[in-house]
């Protein structure tokens, strides 16, 4: 019995564990090793440089700027995504007709590829010519067309990127919140009503939100990590064959160009940057966890 | 939900695919033809868009009788795939690529000076320089591509504007040609930041890197030249946010602009749409020191230094890209449109003797500048493009931005050349 259990365990877990080891843990470990070497155009470097790559990356204003931009982006996008997805969840959860329909409608964008959505946003909704969707709507009100992704003053590209990200991500976090909402025992609300709490803000504030605490923590943490790991929609909306502009450049996009850019590969600096980014995410996540759970 | 995870997965898939490809490639070479076991030469191309190129290169390879050659056609992100396969040691024996100094320093490619020998002078200098590092040639140029300025003759006539011969005339023309629905110029959705940085430097007699391996744009004139791009950007005469970017002719052929900066490769499409109603120009000069310019680039045939058949691979490259001028002509002119990198071939092609084609050939002879020289590394180009972008699109001080980029480029050159 025990032996067959063990065998079953390895049968089911084995392939996954091997894949995880080979394709996730070994590359992560290797990347840390590479970050201490001069690894240009090689993944088996011999030239140990100590902390030089780290010093270079910490002195690289472009890298620091992208870390700064995305810290600010996280401060903005994390609460926004959380609040909007909670609001959606509350609305969908309260609705009595066609609940499954609305739940699916809001969740569906999660199944859409980031690349496809980016192209739709960039090429059809927010293109800069007069017949683009957004510009057609503006045209009804007599406004001039706006070059959405090309305009830097004001930086309209943020509107494109943020709406795209929200459209793609809200549904998923909404589902997490709905699951959380459905686990709140009904009798808590009934007890509150008997005690004189009014449905609406009072029960939301004193019953729903405290009961959703664990879900909220999870949503915020996932969101924070996702904000620093932004890549796909930024790369596909703002990137061109000639590279990526210096604004709204996610750290991962910058590191991608550093390690695999067109002028040769530099895995040492790329890996050092990746390790620094991982440390930053860990630090911010821990700090956020401390603040929330206090 | 988590974009980082997706991108990591994509990268891993790509690596997996490359590993698989190299495994398959290894199988392929083991099954080599006849008695010559393991003597098959692997040759890689990226996927050319024009119909017929794949069949053509397979035909060339099949007609080589000194060794079996297997052509691999690589759709998708060819440069990354090639770079990965060269790292792993399982790459092709012969491949096409642009030359980067990092590949030379890492010992990934072999010098081909002995192949090019007596026909060296037949190659256009700028093109060959793009495949040369420290005096050694590492790639035999296959086909030249270039960028230039396309202008709509009828719109110029209607507005009474002459084709510009200086940058100031160009800015003036762009303004005068801008009417309600038509903009003066389209040079990319980034306002030309990506493609016009080089031409701006050349217009003032500067360059990315000097022949003495010094930074070429650490000069007050560079700020003036980039300032002109800012002037264009803020003049309201640039088309921004077009559906297709500068590399496609759509904005020009649809009449959204009077001028577009795009490439030689769009000529067939533009001719089909506009007939004779267009002309081509180099990017004009700015100062008396400067010159008109066209950025050029060429894929060259290279030999993998880790190949087990370096000598046979070199012999094949010599046969195809030096000796078989008939194939070279067919490759350049038979499908789509490129300029042969060899003067003798360009001179004898009838197709290149008329209209915009002869203009283009003349620009390549007289005004060519390497769009991406081998020692213009990604560190330098990122620093320079960032500076240009900030100065042009965000109105930062061009002098300060370029100074910072020059400092970064100087560090990189010091690392490369000491």
TrEMBL record, chain A:
Its main location: membrane. Residues 67-288 form the ABC transmembrane type-1 domain. The keyword Hydrolase does not apply. InterPro entries: ABC_transporter_permease, MetI-like, MetI-like_sf. Keywords: Cell membrane, Membrane, Transmembrane, Transmembrane helix, Transport. One of its GO terms (cellular component) is plasma membrane. It is a multi-pass membrane protein. One of its GO terms (biological process) is transmembrane transport. It is found in: Cell membrane. The keyword DNA damage does not apply. The chain crosses the membrane at residues 9-28, 70-93, 100-121, 156-179, 212-231, 267-287. Belongs to the binding-protein-dependent transport system permease family. This is Sugar ABC transporter permease. It comes from Umezawaea endophytica.
Automatic annotation (TrEMBL), chain B:
InterPro entries: SBP (IPR006059), TAT_signal (IPR006311). It comes from the Bacteria. PROSITE patterns: TAT. Keywords: Signal, Transport. One of its GO terms (biological process) is maltodextrin transmembrane transport. GO terms for cellular component: ATP-binding cassette (ABC) transporter complex, substrate-binding subunit-containing. SUPFAM superfamilies: Periplasmic binding protein-like II (SSF53850). GO terms for molecular function: maltose binding. Belongs to the bacterial solute-binding protein 1 family. This is Sugar ABC transporter substrate-binding protein. It comes from Umezawaea endophytica. The lineage of its organism: Bacteria, Bacillati, Actinomycetota, Actinomycetes, Pseudonocardiales.
